[in-house]
Amino acid sequence: MLAHNVSAEIRRAISRGEFAPGQKLNEVALAERFGVSRNTLREAFAMLTSEGLCERIPNRGVFLATPSAEFITDTFRARAAIEPAALLWGTDLDVDRLEELNAEGRVAIEEEDDDLFIAVNQAFHHVVLSSMGSKTLGDTMDQLDAFLRLATLPILERDPSFNRRFIEVNERIVELLRNDDRQGASDFLQQQLLELSTEIIDMLERINNGEVG
């Protein structure tokens, strides 16, 4: 259970952008940070490795994954399956809270606080998924958050405001929900996620080819 908690904390740290793709994870520093033994930390690393977030390289250590196009496509397909389903079938969808988060997102944009906006945007999608009442799906969303932060970090380094565009997507979702069009909200989010997957892969290819400074 302790190793599970530590893996969850590392996952959240990845989601907050504390680690970069390909970065080596320092066992001594992380064991001290979380107040656990290195054996417990290694168990947590093994969990993260099984999820595809980390890679253990013999005689070198544990490194964060560097997302491939296949990795990104798979991640977005997972989100495009579970989040639209929550909009369509979630039995406890808190539209008021989603609207509040959009207001917080607008404030973050006005204050040019991109880290805050990312956190608010993540919270928006967690509220959507929490309507399904499933801890398993909540844990899955934590994993997907970490995957997506790894994938988009190279983009955010060049354009910290990249995520601001999502406020319009989130506001449109709330608008459709307010009009009792859950199917429309579901279809809209699914389309947006699949299109974003292609856009991110294209941007990363351009960055890797030196086409984006």
UniProtKB/TrEMBL annotation:
UniProt KW Transport keyword: no
Gene Ontology terms, MF aspect: DNA binding; DNA-binding transcription factor activity
Listed InterPro entries: GntR_C, TF_FadR/GntR_C, Tscrpt_reg_HTH_GntR, WH-like_DNA-bd_sf, WH_DNA-bd_sf
PROSITE patterns cross-referenced by the UniProt entry: HTH_GNTR
UniProt keyword DNA-binding, yes or no: yes
SUPFAM superfamilies linked: GntR ligand-binding domain-like, Winged helix' DNA-binding domain
Keywords per UniProt: DNA-binding, Transcription, Transcription regulation
Residue ranges of every copy of the HTH gntR-type domain listed in the record: 1-67
Pfam families listed in its UniProt record: FCD, GntR
Name recorded for this polypeptide: GntR family transcriptional regulator
Taxonomic source organism: Corynebacterium lujinxingii
